[in-house]
Amino acid sequence: MRITVAPSAGFCFGVRRAIKTALDTARQGFRVEMLGDIVHNEDVVRQVEAAGVRKVDALGDGRGKTLLIRAHGASKHIVADAQRRGYSIVDATCPMVKEIHTIVDDFYTRGLRVIIIGDGDHEEVQGIRGQIEAPVTIIDSAENIPWEELKGVDRAGVVVQSTQKAENVQAIVNALKPHFKELEVCNTICKATTTRQQEIKTLPKACNVVLVIGSRSSANTRRLYEIARELNPRSHWIQSKDDIDLAWFESAATVGITAGASTPQGTIDAVVGFLEKCGHF
């Protein structure tokens, strides 16, 4: 059996940068806290916590402490509150997400209603929403558009959660267009997400079995799995080699592997190594 690993599988630039920032900050001896996980991957979370970065549920007395802003970004309110409490700030927000923040600020300045296409409860979307003090509409699907929120709005600007599926974005934009005199759309799906989604549209067709590696809390991994599953029912979402069932590979000649943007290379290598040791590859 032949194993094919997608070229883009694993860490994207933003995740790699955030982890390096966290570890470098901890090595300098600072008392580092962060609100939530650095990225959506349990192995990475453990690595960062072992280095001395402490995850907290709420901000406290920040004197002598550093608040690390995670890869997903944060609202302006959180940053301002942390500074008032005495924290110094180290910003590990993905540069692609920071670009979305800039676009939202521009839309607001020009008087456009901001629309975010994305998952409303995701940290990235909440951070984007928190860049302006004005009503923001969040849409997750073309079937779930809150038209009441948009009643009377004729000028709007659209940004996109960086890990959204392109097809979902297009369907929402198509549904919105007839209802606005002016609709400015910035497709802010990041390049890493686009590349992965393009690869996963070919891998399931070329391989008998597909493994998608990543945390259950990872939005971009979930979308990779959804695309793969639509194209090949023998697609499986795993977090590590321990989730593999060898029965999946019965009568299979090829297996394709991809991984979410926050999946460490070591986890991918362990999956490949496990399969090779099974003697079927």
Keywords:
281 residues, alpha/beta, Cobalt-precorrin-4 Transmethylase, domain 1, Rossmann fold, four-stranded parallel sheet, flat
Element layout with pairings:
Blueprint lengths: L1 E4 L7 H15 L3 E5 L6 H9 L3 E3 L8 E5 L6 H9 L3 E4 L3 H15 L3 E5 L5 H7 L6 E4 L15 E6 L5 H11 L5 E4 L5 H10 L2 H4 L2 E5 L5 H13 L3 E4 L15 E6 L5 H13 L4
Parallel strand pairs: 1-12, 2-3, 2-4, 4-5, 6-7, 6-8, 8-9, 10-11, 10-12
Helix pairs in contact: 4-5, 7-9
Q: Can you walk me through this structure?
A:
The protein has 281 residues and is α/β, with parallel strands linked by helices. The chain folds into 3 domains: 2-10 and 192-277, Cobalt-precorrin-4 Transmethylase, domain 1 (3-Layer(aba) Sandwich), CATH 3.40.1010.20; 13-93, Rossmann fold, CATH 3.40.50.11270; 96-189, 4-hydroxy-3-methylbut-2-enyl diphosphate reductase, catalytic domain (Cobalt-precorrin-4 Transmethylase, domain 1, 3-Layer(aba) Sandwich), CATH 3.40.1010. It contains 10 helices and 12 strands. The chain has helices at residues 13-27, 42-50, 76-84, 95-109, 123-129, 166-176, 191-200, 203-206, 219-231, 265-277; strands spanning 2-5, 31-35, 54-56, 65-69, 88-91, 113-117, 136-139, 155-160, 182-185, 209-213, 235-238, 254-259. A 4-stranded parallel β-sheet has the order 1-12-10-11, with helices on both faces. Strands 3-2-4-5 form a 4-stranded parallel β-sheet, sandwiched between helices. The protein has a 4-stranded parallel β-sheet with strand order 7-6-8-9, with helices on both faces. Helix 4 (95-109) packs parallel to helix 5 (123-129) and helix 7 runs parallel beside helix 9.
